[in-house]
Each structure stands twice: as C-alpha cells, then as structure tokens.
Amino acid sequence: MDYFNAPGRHHLFVPGPVNIPDQIIRAMNRNNEDYRSPAIPAMTKILLEDVKKIFKTTAGTPFLIPTTGTGAWESALTNTLSPGDRIVSFLIGQFSLLWIDQQQRLKFNVDVVESEWGQGAKLDVLESKIASDSAHTIKAICIVHNETATGVTNNLAKVRQILDSYRHPALLIVDGVSSICALDFRMDEWGVDVAITGSQKALSLPTGIGIVVASPKAIEASKTAKSLRVFFDWKDYLKFYQLGTYWPYTPSIQLLYGLRAALDLIFEEGLENVIARHHRLGTATRLAVEAWGLKNCTQKEEWYSDTVTAVLVPSYIDSSEVVRRAWKRYNLSLGLGLNKVAGKVFRIGHLGNLNELQLLGCLAGVEMILKDVGYPVKLGSGVAAASAYLNNTIPMIASRI
Amino acid sequence: MDYFNAPGRHHLFVPGPVNIPDQIIRAMNRNNEDYRSPAIPAMTKILLEDVKKIFKTTAGTPFLIPTTGTGAWESALTNTLSPGDRIVSFLIGQFSLLWIDQQQRLKFNVDVVESEWGQGAKLDVLESKIASDSAHTIKAICIVHNETATGVTNNLAKVRQILDSYRHPALLIVDGVSSICALDFRMDEWGVDVAITGSQKALSLPTGIGIVVASPKAIEASKTAKSLRVFFDWKDYLKFYQLGTYWPYTPSIQLLYGLRAALDLIFEEGLENVIARHHRLGTATRLAVEAWGLKNCTQKEEWYSDTVTAVLVPSYIDSSEVVRRAWKRYNLSLGLGLNKVAGKVFRIGHLGNLNELQLLGCLAGVEMILKDVGYPVKLGSGVAAASAYLNNTIPMIASRI
Amino acid sequence: MDYFNAPGRHHLFVPGPVNIPDQIIRAMNRNNEDYRSPAIPAMTKILLEDVKKIFKTTAGTPFLIPTTGTGAWESALTNTLSPGDRIVSFLIGQFSLLWIDQQQRLKFNVDVVESEWGQGAKLDVLESKIASDSAHTIKAICIVHNETATGVTNNLAKVRQILDSYRHPALLIVDGVSSICALDFRMDEWGVDVAITGSQKALSLPTGIGIVVASPKAIEASKTAKSLRVFFDWKDYLKFYQLGTYWPYTPSIQLLYGLRAALDLIFEEGLENVIARHHRLGTATRLAVEAWGLKNCTQKEEWYSDTVTAVLVPSYIDSSEVVRRAWKRYNLSLGLGLNKVAGKVFRIGHLGNLNELQLLGCLAGVEMILKDVGYPVKLGSGVAAASAYLNNTIPMIASRI
Amino acid sequence: MDYFNAPGRHHLFVPGPVNIPDQIIRAMNRNNEDYRSPAIPAMTKILLEDVKKIFKTTAGTPFLIPTTGTGAWESALTNTLSPGDRIVSFLIGQFSLLWIDQQQRLKFNVDVVESEWGQGAKLDVLESKIASDSAHTIKAICIVHNETATGVTNNLAKVRQILDSYRHPALLIVDGVSSICALDFRMDEWGVDVAITGSQKALSLPTGIGIVVASPKAIEASKTAKSLRVFFDWKDYLKFYQLGTYWPYTPSIQLLYGLRAALDLIFEEGLENVIARHHRLGTATRLAVEAWGLKNCTQKEEWYSDTVTAVLVPSYIDSSEVVRRAWKRYNLSLGLGLNKVAGKVFRIGHLGNLNELQLLGCLAGVEMILKDVGYPVKLGSGVAAASAYLNNTIPMIASRI
C-alpha cells in the first residue's frame, strides 16, 4: 500500500500536515471505543481544560470539532456573525484569500484590506477604519496570525491595542492555524474572541480536529448570530458539555488519545520552550537562506515567521521544480508557491515536533536541489550559517541532563 | 493514558464506532505526508473509483469529506436544496429525529411523517403525498436506510417505486450511515440521488470521513441550490477533481490509507459475502433475543436490521443498567436506549469487521448481565439458539480452504 | 502480507504464543534505540527488580535472555550442572519429554521418572529416590510446573517438602513456562533454585525473551558448573550488571518496552487477581468440557491446570480435525494433541491477558466444531455451564467501579 | 514509558541496532498467532527461499534462530566443529575479540592472528599457515567480514583464493553481522561455508533473529561435529523443515512479518542498489571526516567500511564525551569507542534503511559536537564535502520517476 517507497525516513518539511512524533503515533494505534462509555467523557473533560493552556486562555470555551481548518474558520464565523455583517479582513496571501472567499460566500460584507504578498496586514488601514467607525458598523476583525503561504506573522497585540484605543467592540477573530503552539499566542491578554487551529499543524497530529476557542463575548454573540449552522453550531456542544457527555456526534477516539499525547509532550517540554525552539528553527532557516544569497518572501523582519519560510528563487528558476526534485531525488517534501507566488517561492515548513538536526538535513538537501536546478549555491554554506547560530543556542535536553 | 484498563480484549458492540480490524490499524500506523505530493492524488483517484463500488454506483460522484455523519447529512442537504424547499422526511427514531432537526434548522420546509419508534417509515403516507403532489412541490425525500436507534431497516426499493409510478422528480436522499457496506444497498438501481455513510460504521475505520455520493441529478441540483455552504460545498471538490489534486483542504493521510485497507478487506471478502455475514450476525442475534424471551424493539420482520438489534427489557428493568453493568463487569460495550426508548431498550451493534464467535461471546455476556439485573434468563439459551443457526450457515473461510 | 485474512478478530486459544493486549502492542510500536545510551540501562534496572516480583522472589537474580523457552531451559541447566551429573526429571508429556531430550543431549545422567500422560509427576518415586540418596548423587530435580501438552500442574511445594525432609541439597530447577504469572508460583517460599518462563506465555508478549531467575544457591553452583556455555552463560550478564550497562549483547528494544507494559498491566490488575482470573477461566473451561460429556486429559483434580485444558475426544474422532476446522471455519486457533496424545486431544489455552467473554466465544465455537466433526454435543451446554459459574465469580472491574 | 523524551525524531547512528523503516514497524504491529497453523509454515517457506537471495546463495540452508548475533556465532561454530579442533581466527577489533573469546570458551584450539586495531585481517599470515598445513589440521577459518568496532572490511574473496590455491578443505566461517545486505557479499561465489547476520543490522529489524546460512559442506560437517548443542542445533531445524512445520520451537510472529517486509523493501530497491547506497553513505561520511581534518581509524582505503566509520579524535579529546554530548544535546546516538580504542574513536553507523539527508543531518550534528568539545572544526565543512559528492551520485528515486 505504499506506492512510492524510497529508502530511509521521508523528510517532511511542508508547513502542514507536519511530522507526528512516535509517542503520538503509538497513542493513536488503537481500536475504536464507545464514546458514550464513562471513559471518553472523563478524558474529554481534562482535554478541554488542557487545550485552553496552549491558547493561553482561562476564560475561553474550547470546541474540538471533527473537521479541518477550513471548517474551523466556518465555525468561528457562523457562530458569531449574521449575513450582511460588516467585517474587516486582511488579504496577505493564499490562506487569507481563501478565508475571505469563505467570508464572502457566507454573505458577510467583507471589507478587504489587501497587502502585497510578503507583507503583513496593513494595521494603519485598520486603525483608520476603526477610527472612523464610531457607529460600530464593523462587527469583526478577521486576521490570520501567520500566513502560511508567505511566511508572514501579524502583530495581534497591535490589533488589540487599536481596538482598545477606540473602545471598539468588534470581535477579534484569529486564524492561528500555523501559529498556535509554535508562536507566541495569548488569547486572553490580546483579547482574541475566537481563535482556531488545526490538529495537523503545531500540535503534530493527523488532520481531523479543528480546534475553536471562544471568548465569553464570542459565546454571547453566538446567541444572537443569525448565520445558519448545524454541524458547526456551538450550541450543540454546549448542550452536551452541560450533560457531561461532551459529544454531540461521534469524535475520533484515536485523535482524542493522540491529542492527549500531544499535549503531554508540549507540557513536558514546556510551552515557552516549544516556542523558543520554533524561534531557533525559524532563525536558522533564515540564516541559511541568506547564506545562499536568496531572499525571504517576507519583506520585513517584523513579519518573519518562525513556522514557515517562503524562499524566493531567481526569475530563471521555477520554484515548482525545486519541490518536484526534492520529492523525486531527495525524499524531501517542501511546500509549493501558491497562487500569486506560484513558481516564485518554495516553502520550508519548520513547525511541530521537529529538531535542529532534522532541519539541518533538510537544509543540506535544499542546497543540493538548488544546485540541481541551476542556482550557483555554495554547498554547505546554508548549513554552516545555521549551525553557527544553533551551536550557540540549542539547550541541553531537559530529561537527559 | 488508559484510565480504565481491564484484562483481555474489550468487547465493542455499540452500533458505531465499531471494531477496527488489525489490518486497518496497521495501515493507519504512520506519519503524515504532504497531500500535495504526487502520492496522495494518485491514491485518491483509485479510492474514489473503489468507493463507488460499495455504493453500487457507476454514475455517482463521491466526496470524502473530513467530517462525521452529521456533517455528511449537512453536505447532502445544503448542496441540493434551497431554504424553504419542501421535503418529506420520516421520523422513526433518534437519528432520523436529529436529521429532521438539522433539516429544520437549515430552514427547509420539512413535511415530517412520523412512525411509532420500532416501526419503519410510513411509505403509504409517502405515496399519498406523492400522488397528490402533481405540482411537484416536494423537492426531496429524506430517509434513513437503517435507523440505528431502533434497529429498523426501511425499504428503499419501495420508495423508488412510488416516485417512479408517479413520475415524481423529487430527489431521493438517503442516510446509509449504518447500512452501506453491511446491508444490501443499490444506489443506481434504486435511483438514490444522494447517499451518505461514515467511516466509523460498516467500513470499520475511525471516525473522520463522511462519505457522500451524488447522482448526476444531484450534481445538477447543486448548481442551483441556494443553501449557503462553504466547507461542505461540492463545488470546491469538483474544482480540485478537475485539477487532479483532489483535495480543497487537508485530508487525513491516515484515514486515506485506512480506507484503502478497508476497501481491500471488503473486496477480498466480497461485498455480497460481507452482506451475507451481516445477515447471519443479525439473524443469530434475533434468535438469541427470542430464546431469552425478550422482544425486539423492531416490530415487524420486514424491518429487521442486520446491523443493530434494539432489545426491549421488561418494565421492571432499566436498560441503562444493562449497559452500565456490561461495561463495569464484563468489559463489554452495548448501546444505550435513546430518547423515547431510553431505559427501555439496550442495543447490540453487530456491524463492521466482526465474526460469529465474537458475537457469541457478546451474547453470552448479555445473558449474564440479564441475570445480574434480575431478569430470569436461562444461561446459555441465547447462545444455543444462535449457535444452532450459525452452525448451519457459517461458510468456510475462503482464504483457508 | 496477510495471506489468510478472515473477517473479524482472530480467536487465539493456543497455550502460547498468547494474545497480546493492545497496551503492549502500542508500547512495542517503535523504532530501535541505542542500548548503550543511558535510557536502556535505566529501564533495565527497574525491569529486573520488577520481574522478581512475578516470580515472588527477593533473593533471586533474573536474566532476560534473547531466546525462547528452549533456550531458557538450556541456560538453567548448563549454568548449574556439569556433564555426567545425575538429575531426576519427570516425563509427563511432550514438553517434559523435550526437556529430558535436551538434558540427555547435554550429557547429564538423567534419571527419568515417567507418568502416564494426563497424570502428574510421581512424587512418591521422587521421595524414594531422595530417601535412598544419602550420598547426594542427585544434583538436581528438573520438573515442569505445568505440562502444556496435557494440562497437568505439578505440586512444587510438595517437591520442596520432600527435599527438605531429607535435607537433600539437590537443586530444584523448574520450568514455569506455562505457569508463572498465571498460576500460584512462589520461588523463594518453595526454594526453587532456577525458574524459567517465556515472554510469549502468561506475560502476553511476543516470543523473544527467555526469563531465567537463579537463587543464590544456583548462582553459587554456576561458579563451578562445567557444562560449556557462552551465549547462555550467566557470567557475562553478571559482569555487565556490575558495570551497570546490563547487556552483554543486543537486547530487543521493543521487547523491553513491551515487558515494561506487561508488568504494568499485571501490577495494575494485581498478581493475585491475575492468578484468580486464570482460576476462573480454567474452572469455566473444565465445567464446559464436563457439560459436553467429554473428558479432561488430566486425570485428577489435584493436577488440573488453570492455563490449558487438554480435552479428550471419543475414539471415532480425530482431534486434529477439530483444530483444522476451528481454523478453517471459525477463525479460531486451538492447540493440537502432541505425540502420544496426537489425534486424541485438542487443547484450549486460557492464559495470558484474556477475559471471560473471550473464553465464552471460544467455547461456543468449540461446541459448533464438535458438532461439525460428528460429536453429539448439545449446543449451548458448555457455555451455560461456564456462564453459571462465571456469573457468580467475575468481579467488578477495579478501574471502573 | 518514555523517560528521556526530546523534541523531534531521534537520530540513530550507532552501527546497530539501526533505524527500522515505518513499513516494517507497521508490519510488526500485530498480535501473536499460532505458529502451528498453516499460515506460519507457508510464510516461512517463502522467507527461507528469499533469505538465501540476500546471502547470494542457492546451495545454502538458512536457519532463522531466535537469538542475537552472539548466538548465531555459537550456532555456526558448534554445529560444524568439535572441541579441540584447530581454527584460525583474526583478531582485528572488539567484535572479533569477543568471537575469539567464545571460540576459546567452546574449547576450540584457536590460532589467533592479530592485527593492529584499524587494520584488516593479516591474510599473508593466513596464507603461510595454510601453505604449511598440508596435514589439514586447520578445520576452519573464522573471520568477520566487517569489524564493527573499527570500521574495517576484510577481503573474503582473497581468503577463498588462498584456500583454493592450496586446495585446503578448512571451512570458511564468516561473521557478516554488519555487512550482509549492505556490503557486497557472495556466499556461493566465495565459497563461504557458514555465514551469519543479525536482524537488527542491515535488515533494519529489531533484534531477535540470528540468521545462519550453511553450505552443503557445513551441513555435512554438522553430522559429525561433536560440540554439544541443543538450542542451536541445526538438526532440530532440519527435522522440522522435513515435516513442513519448520519451527522446532516458538518463533517471534512479529519478526517473521517484519522480515517479510524487510525483504520486500530490499527487493523493491534492488540488492545492488542497496549496496550502492551504502557505498554512497560510507564515502560521504569519509569525505566529511577528511574535511574536518580528522583521521579514520581504518588505516587503509582497501579496508574502508561502507557501514560504519570509526573517527579518531585528537588526544586532547575524550571520544566518549562526543557520544554523551550527542545524546544529551542533539538527540543523536553515536557509537562509543570500544576496548583498545575507547576514548579514542567515536563511530558513525551508516547502515540499514537510511538515506542521504538523514546522514547529512547527523554530520551537521557531529560538527557542532566537535566544536562543543573543543575541536576547531569549520562548521559546514563536512556537510559541504559530503554534499559535493552526494550531489553527483544520488540517483532519482525509482518509484517516483
């Protein structure tokens, strides 16, 4: 059943789905169970509490929805908004584009603020819109924390600050799909009203759980929001939370045990250490790109992403060929350039349960591929630059000291 | 991470999620992969063709949606209907009730035809409605093939016959969640327009894929249906089918390999043999119930379900206690009675990758539990009745002759 | 890679290798590790301490040898004895026969005490030999605790009593392969000098670890024993125990983690509860055999084995056909009759991580097979007899109360 | 149960046990089975045929013994030789030393030919011994094909040539533990009489199968060899081969399925391609060592090993600290220097199911460790040298072209 075998371990460096650690694969290696037995609700209760920790919220209500990030988006929107509601949404890359497409198809009145791909959300434009909206016609701000297509991280604290300085009541709805559990994310402190992520990203699970966390204000909004929803309706979850049985419909037993293992690994490492590790991996990658003489698609340091790096290739190279060759010769999966940056960038995902030597193996591979496609890279240069930094920053492994 | 260990194998006899065979557990025991590499589309292409075989359709278009049965319901409805559309829907148990609730919340005009729980859909009422609807105001008939709460199987061929005899163009939308791959189901022959199932039922996978298959007529209807939908929109799938990349958003890699293994097992056994095995298991269970002197919740033989049996307990017994005791003393999971039949029935699920000796172990357990809760069962009686039948009907194992 | 697929769970009722619980399968689902890293010695140290608990010894020294039971036998003998040494050995079935064959090939002077197959060791003969051996020419008594071929359990306490009453210094070497962790076994109390078991028996692991535990007296004997041995030499282990690195050659990493999981399950259930469970399963099986009107190969109650039951079939039936049919029609593995009882008995193994409903499924299967081969069994009779007993004796599951 | 967790994939670069590919881990993720059912002999029959292919023999008889390499050694010796027999054995490192220790403890008359560690077997000495042994007192030549402690590969073709040129009938017994399936090995062509390997080496399985293949001449010798053996006796295997049941005692079911998967992977890649891949990995490693300015423990190119490289560190560095630091900071396992080269060398194992980017990750790690311990390495230098070579030699992945 494996049609494309190649010797050795596959090197998975797309920005999702990411590598699943063995501990999680083991935890999921199991038969189904009755989700109405006492075991699953008991487990779910603790999972819901623990999930809140990785969102840094105590006030939020989490929903573990059997869906993908796209479904989590829909759950966030339809539970809090009504058709026709004005929302401000930032278009900065392919995933924000797809979310805006969803917002429009769900009949919201989307006020799109577009940036050049490679730049962050135009928060100055947001500020002027908020400033001029004393009537509070804007019902929500929708923003991706980390745009996976371009490797751009937006400044959420700044968004909160803008809303607060104008005492604007708009909901703050955040796509944290490629950020939560990897980048610094503070739901309560930043006043995020709905935050979402997907199991197959920094949690390092298979695809299948869309995690949505709602602030009390979002829960309140859900009581009057008129968007039609059934599968994605929080109301059904809240009813079963009350009953103590937790699940309005069948969850994946395997993913629940997997989530338990994922959270245990994160708590054992320490969430701040996880974030610091992603910063190391992101920095090391950027140093390699620089050493290769290539440009980061992300135009300014303030937007650098620690979970994915989009690398611009010279115009005489087709970045898709880099990705193809990675898979065909080096057993390496890299991310394609999408839409506006198709053919122009390839992407290195460096999120999830990943360590430095894995990344260095990938970077060594990218060097050889660049050579293959005609770019005059100095072999070893990126690894050298990354290693020089990592050699100074990698901590001892806590469990082994 | 296993808080409720008990010696030996757990006996899982709820009507879903069901036992996953080892071959599938093995196939799913794997890391994530890039779903944009050539491997996943190549695999998906064949999976889609093979899925059609278990629905007995050549004309249908399958969608493997990362969701549960509830989401599959929603996909079936919102892609083919518009708010306000009149639909006829049969209320015969808890799952048809939940589907009707969804239909109403999605703003369809639901013409509910209710039966006593334990009876099948009132097809005579359907006939009179169809007969009198020369204006074709009825846009769809929604029917569960097998009501999991009461163990009632409806006659879909008869529904088709009624529609045909009046040349009525209503769409026929079928919930096959606890039937497809276990009961005789013929999408093309019976003119089913949308049929759905879930991975955790007769396919014997974990929860996570809602399988929806649409007839050409349903695909046509989807072009004009006005229900809002994004995550569940077939259009996005069809676009990616055209592109040959197949996935509008991230699928579960593990479930794809699992589905491959599940289909391989079904094809190796032979779909007709799978159905015959379910008939054996259903019959054996009913013979045991009869031997115990208990009644089947299903009131007539024509509605007997080969995938689940709801057993009525005497009024002096609380069926929930049967289920509790099964779990606490015998390491056995049985299905609770739901809603109107709560406390009155317990359910034995006998679907999926299951064999006769497993069932007999379960039946032996049920006998002891009945004794525990004060019902004067003759121990061994149900097993004897079931065995007498099975001893005459179990075939030799094809691979071992 | 599964050439003999059959629907549902395989029913494994041979007396070894036995069913592996999911918790152990999960624990073993892993990559290799460096056995010279600090992790493996740290784990081994605790494993060795914990293994002693299941032998009920504090004074013994355990060896976890990468071998089978046959190798463990050889290790027990060659480390404690010299060629030409006189040993008393009991021939009561196929496995004691094989051990005696090994003893002879290793050039010991084997004083064989033979019983009819189905009877226990002739301890009266032992007593007379011991009584007359004031010169202490007998260097060791070799006895199987539980003869797996006939389902006979010997009385070890009695052996110790005989040796003690004559103050005879012979070593007491015990094959506990199908007893330890399932039957009452007390190494220190009974003065056992070498006790062995195999991972694939009551520990419910794959084959691959031969566990040998040596008393201080046995360790002392090993210093002068002249039998040649290298792979099986305890000396190499003891040297590496001293060094704290524990392994003279590469262990199976997977089996170490599996053993950890196996011991955890046993300690969680409680060793005495494990033994009581085996007694329930053994008793239930014997009651079923009796209800079928068949005879137990074990001739007296004092020898009844709680881990395996050898069932005598009438002379007009070939017991091999029972076993063949179990596999070919019912997806059930039973044990063949071996050597002198080939064709005359089939064996039901009921040891390891197994519960009552699993056993009842097996018994229901055996009833149908008996019918198939022409024995006039009353279907349900054995299950009824077993259930009547089990219904009174199965405890609530401790973790679920 | 994982006491030493660290983020990301562990980098396992000891020369055994080696990385197990996911396909094998999956194949082994299973319950026990009855090894006396028809399934296991059917599988075994094919396995035995296929195992011969990786030894490049058609005349040989393979034995899959539940043991380690040490046990395989013992099986090779005791089945073919008698105590007192004169054998010539080459001491060139720790593993040949251990084998010689075994030979002596088994009471053979061992004529040890010692080389400096880092050099190959002294074949000129062999030649003179053979030349002067017209009486044929030498019964066997024992030689390790690849000494794992020093990374030295001996020239077996030359050994055969010496024996042939003097028409000397000594048996040629070869330890192929760290060579077979990775280095060029030709049992029939080189007239090897007994060849052994272990499952945890180039086959990339867990420890647990010692594979011994005997030539017809070795089988003939086993009929008169007087060394005592029972567990390791080929006679018992041959008897069961005749019976068609294959196993004198319980095999590991999991390892059999694992071996099946391992052979499938090797045959799919092509044995010659596997060997070529090992040559690439070995060459790349040596180029890195050279670029770091360090010396290979192997003193001449003719002895370079493609499965393990022992790297000499400057005298002011303790190579054990390199290994400790690899594990504690970089989640990397390297091999220690053993015995005479303890503290002086660390070893990089590059055998088994391994690819180039994995190796480059390891090499990048070694560079940082060298820096940590005070060696003035230029970061990136080894990776650059290795990449320059690999970039020219890595083939396209056959299944993906």
UniProtKB/TrEMBL annotation, chains A, B, C, D:
Q: What is one GO biological process annotated to this record?
A: glycine biosynthetic process, by transamination of glyoxylate
Please give the CDD domains that the UniProt record associates with this protein: AGAT_like
Q: Which GO terms describe its molecular function?
A: alanine-glyoxylate transaminase activity; L-serine-pyruvate transaminase activity
Keywords, alphabetical: Aminotransferase, Pyridoxal phosphate, Transferase
Domain spans labelled Aminotransferase class V: 72-296
Q: EC number(s) for this protein?
A: 2.6.1.44
Asked if the keyword Transferase belongs to this entry, the reply reads yes
Q: Which residues bind substrate?
A: 347
| Residues with PTM N6-(pyridoxal phosphate)lysine | 201
Could you give one GO CC term from the UniProt record?
Answer: peroxisome
User: Where is the signal peptide, in residue numbers?
Assistant: none
A Pfam family? Aminotran_5
Q: Could you say which cofactors this protein requires?
A: pyridoxal 5'-phosphate
Q: Which family does it belong to?
A: Belongs to the class-V pyridoxal-phosphate-dependent aminotransferase family.
Could you identify this protein by its name? alanine--glyoxylate transaminase
Gene source species: Psophocarpus tetragonolobus
